[in-house]
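Hi everyone,

Forwarding the result from last night's run.
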Amino acid sequence: MRKPVIAGNWKMYKTPKESLAFLDAFLPLVEGHGRDEILLFPTMSSLAYVIEASLGTNVCAGAQNMHWLNEGPYTGQTSPTMLVSIGARHVLLGHSEQRLYFSETYERVNLKLKAAINHGITPIVCFGEMLAEREDLQTADVLRTQVRTALRNISASEARRLVVAYEPIWAIGTGSTAHPDVAEQAHGIIRQELAHCCGLETAEKTRILYGGSVKPENISSLMAQPDIDGALVGGASLVPTTFANIVKYE
């Protein structure tokens, strides 16, 4: 019912030349693979190149972030209309590194989410707790608050385009992956809150990805969980063969 999504977030890595070299090696490795939706999120300087090079393939590319306004005096920002103009149809919103290092709030994520939906861009909205919050048994409350804030005034019909990623902050880039049972429990909490915000039908159809030190060695056990619908992959998505092995998990 929910087609899995395997997404690679390249963060602040790869020049346009390096990005195209990646595609030259990666695309033949996943050619004809239709079980999963394959997404790449390169840097803004590489995005247009990756989109063009991926045309006609089973791989799509999106942006790592965006502003919610179409234009304005906001140095360093990229608007949804700019993304649409180069063919971007996906965007990451609320990534933990944006929240940790650049003061991203879920009030802003809510504005960006509305803008993405209004421009026909598929948003992948990220949620996740810090280690101290998990140790204090606050995970459920934190996730519910994050989802509720990000989806404020988003209707069920608008939320149909939404993809969600659960990425516990304590597992991002640390090498520590949430145990599949732990990840499944968090995905269940998020899906319950989605049902509360947008209705049961929308919640059941929404794909929820796991992100946090995903690699070929753990992808199969994660994907075996009923509420895990894919992966948001960081460092392991930078190497064509490694990422291809994740995409083609068994």
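The beta strands are 5-9, 37-41, 59-61, 90-93, 122-127, 163-166, 207-211, 230-233.

Cheers,
N.
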